[in-house]
Structures are given as C-alpha cells and as structure tokens.
Amino acid sequence: MISARREVSHMSVNRPERTVNRRQTGTESFLLILMAGWVLDPGRWNGYGNVWIKNGVIEAVVSPDVCPPRHAECLDVRGMLIVPGLVDLHVHLREPGYEYKETIATGTDAAVAGGFTSICCMPNTNPVNDESTVTHFIRRKSGKAGRAKVYPVGAITKGSMGRELTDFRALKEASCVALSDDGRPVMDDDIMQRAMHLAAEVDLPVIDHCEDINLSGCGCMNDGPVSRALGLRAIPAAAEERMVKRDIMLARETGARLHIAHVSTEGTVAAVRRAKAEGLTVTAEVSPHHFTLTDEAIREQGVNAKMNPPLRSERDRTALIEGLADGTLDAIATDHAPHAEYEKQWGMDRAPFGVVGLETALALTLRLVEQGTLSLNQAVQYLTSTPARLFGLPGGTLAPGAPADLVVVDRAREWVVDPEQFRSKGRNTPFAGWQLRGRAMLTFVDGQIRYQWSSSS
Questions:
Q1: How many other β-carbons are positioned within 10 Å of the β-carbon of residue 164?
Q2: With 0-12 CB in 10 A as exposed, 13-18 as middle and 19+ as buried, what is 44?
Q3: Element housing 56 (H / E)
Q4: What is the pLDDT of residue 22?
Q5: Which of 168, 246, 345, 379 is spaced 20 to 30 Å from 449 by Cα?
Q6: Average pLDDT over residues 166-181
Q7: Centroid of chain to Cα 136
Q8: Are 128 and 160 in contact (CB under 8 A)?
C-alpha cells in the first residue's frame, strides 16, 4: 500500500486533454498510458503498474518496467492510486420532473467529481420511470450530458403506488437494470410476491425499500434516547426489519434476486447474514452516512441529517461496519438524494428525507481504511467490482477489453467539505465543514477525462 503524494504538479493534465481532442478528430488508434501509479483492481492487480488505454478501452495493465511504445502519450501519476471507476447502485437524479432539485447533467457531473463513472438512477421521478418512454428519455439525456454512465431502474408498480405491476419485460428491453419502488415500499404482500415471481422470470434484481409504513408513520428520525430528548416523532428499527424478513421469505419462495437498499440496522445485517448462509440470492448495500454517523447528528445538523431510513444508534453503526468487514453487505451506495435548500428549511417534521453523497462517498469510505476496519482492497471492491457484478453492469474492472472507466485517487489529499462547491444542485449534507482525506483527481469515462481536480474545484 502506498501513501499518495500531496503534490500533483507532476501530472501532465494538459496532455490527456489533448487525447480527447485527437480521438474526436478521427485518429484511428491512440494509446494513453497512466504511468507508475499504484493499481488496485480487486482480484486482478494490487501493486505498481502502468494502465494502457486504447480507443476507449483498457488495453492492459503492465509492470512499470515495460517500456511504453514510442507513439503512446504518457501521463505520470506516480504516488496516486488507480482504481476502476466507482459504481453507485443507488442515486436519485430527480429528472424528469424535479429539475429544481437536480438534473441528469448536474447529477452526473457530481458523480464524476466523486470518482463515479456508472450510476443507477431510481425511478421516483415525475413521471415515474414506469414505462419505456421515460427510460429512453433518461438514456438520451444522460448521453447528451456526457459524464457518468446512467443505468435506469424501473418502477415495480405503476406510479410507484404499490397497486398495479409495471411491464417488467418492456422495462428491461428499454435498458432498465433493476426494479424498485424506492422511496415507497410495496406494502401489499401479494403484489410483492407477484413482482418477485415476474422479476425472476425476466432476470432483473428487485431493489427493496424496506419500510413498514404502519410502523414508521410520520416519524422523522430514529426511535431512541435522542428522539425522546428532542421530542420528535420516531421510526423504530422494526419498521425496516419487519419488511426485510418478509421479502427474504418471498425471495426464498420465488427465487428472485433481492437487493436490500440502504441497510441501517443491526437486525437487518443479521437477517441478510442468515439469508446468505441459507444460500439465498440476497444482497445488500449500505450508505456512507449510515456507517459514519448516528442519530446524535440530529442534535447539531437537524434536517441535513434527516434521511430515510434514519441514522440509527452506535450499535447499529458498528453492526454495519462489521457487515462490510465480513462480507455480509455487498456494496457501498450513496443514496444521493438532493433537495432544494428551501425544502430543507421546513423543519424536521416537514422537510423531505435525504442527503447528497456522490461527492463525499469516496473519502468517507477511505476513513474506514484509515481506521483499520476495512482493507483498501475491500473498500475498492465495495465501490467498484461487486456493485457492477450485482447488476451485470460493464465496468468495475481494469481487465483488458473493459471500458476505460477509471479514477486516479490522491489518498493523502486533505479537503474541507464545502457544499457551495458541489457540482450537484443539492447542498443538503451533514458533512459540511468536515475535513476529509482522499479524493478523485482524474475521472475517465470510456478513456476520456470527464473530471479533473484543481485547487479551485
């Protein structure tokens, strides 16, 4: 393992920019080599290496001792970490319908600034992504934006109202990679059972927003000593855990691929662990805010620490980290949920749930490495190769022939979280003013630089 340099002046950032121009003018074969970085491609490479990029794909990862061809353009990234582009299974881009919160352009711009090259966008837009026309709209807009790759998630039920199933096959043919009514749980047991049967038939994973609204009610934070001290309506852990157990049972009956979103409680981690031991196809993700903060953050951050599921207790937070450490949890996903500033001023009872996360997730994950609770290999795996594999996405690897989606990371780069500097429209973060270490310096998508850090970033 290396410590990345604090200074990056040796990176010839102008040269790869010319790479973009040359490829766009029709050069048939162009080779860019990232030189002398520490390459970490989980299961494939962990050491110094040169990454060869040719015509938008990974040509090879080779020893630094291998002399580059004369025609290659070389970018010196010594002291830096090179990993596959990060993959986020859970992002809210808000468009269509809520462009005042976020757009596909601003959301994907935030993604590449955070090192993410592939993101899966949830369907709770307006209109809901419950038919192919909306899916095609998202794909067209993301292609036009030209930043991170966007993989739409289709709704389980029409309008995400929990009553009538959408056409799963049509959504898959339109390029949806999973199904979810994220933000609104499917409360009806029969409908969820039918959904899982059909999802298994078309081979799409079901991303489960596990919440029993009969228990969560109008709660706005975790049920515990803090909610009682503040006099706020609360959401018990059982609201999540009851639905997790129901849907694991349905996955057992139907053979569906069940992916549990934004795990927040000790009981959910235990339920997923048991399901995996049984051999069920159950996977789960955790968000950085849940493994970093507890409900104590509400005292100082208020609405900027309000999300659903809510921040839980220290015991829950510890269980989440243990779930990552032992492989019970499969992926780190941001649940990036931007809102307009005025909406977050409505107070704890009325303000919408959600925080932004695309631009802070990498550094918050690296904190677990610094603390010794995760290895660097595990951290990278949970952000790249495993999420890509779960949903069958291209990328997440530096294998020859893979898309040249990768990020150059300075692990030692210290920075202060300033929401006003976010590429996202959202400013709703509980980490404002935090000093973090580690950030994306260069993000490549299909071999093109889509983000380059500068001191004014």
A1: 10
A2: middle
A3: none
A4: 41
A5: 379
A6: 98
A7: 22
A8: yes
Considering the chain, tell me which residue range(s) the CATH 2.30.40.10 domain(s) occupy.
14-83+401-452
Residue 330, sorted as left (phi over 0), alpha (psi -120 to 50) or beta, turns out to be alpha
CATH 2.30.40.10 applies to domain 14-83+401-452: yes
For the stretch 363-370, contacts whose Cβ atoms lie closer than 8 Å and that sit 24 or more positions apart, written own/partner, are 363/415, 363/436, 363/437, 363/438, 363/439, 364/288, 364/289, 364/291, 364/292, 364/431, 364/436, 365/288, 365/332, 366/411, 366/437, 366/438, 367/292, 367/436, 367/437, 368/291, 368/321, 368/324, 370/437
All CATH 3.20.20.140 domain ranges in the chain, comma separated:
85-390
| Distance, CA of 313 to CA of 143 (rounded, Å) | 41
Q: Report the alpha-carbon distance of residue 144 to residue 215 in Å, rounded.
A: 43
What is the dihedral angle through the alpha carbons of 305, 311, 313, 317, rounded to the nearest 10 degrees? Answer: -110
113-144, pLDDT tens digit by residue?
A: 999 999 999 999 999 999 999 999 999 999 99
Q: Which helix (H) or strand (E) holds 208?
A: strand 206-208
- In which element (H, E) is residue 222 found? strand 221-222
Strand partners of residue 41: 45
Rg of the chain on CA atoms, in Å: 21
Rounded to two decimals, what is the model's pTM? 0.94
- β-strand partners of 91: 121, 336
Inter-residue contact 451 to 145 (CB < 8 Å): no
Q: DSSP assignment, residue 430? A: T
- Backbone angles phi and psi of 82, in degrees to 5: -110, 120
Question: Residue 140 burial by CB count (10 A; 0-12/13-18/19+): exposed, middle or buried?
Answer: exposed
Query: In angstroms, rounded to a whole number, what is the distance separating the alpha carbons of residues 305 and 318?
Result: 18
C-alpha span between 441 and 367 (Å, rounded): 18
Q: What is the dihedral of CA 379, 381, 384, 389, to 10 degrees?
A: -150
Q: Does domain 85-390 have CATH number 3.30.499.10?
A: no
Catalytic residues: 335
Secondary structure (3-state) at 134: helix
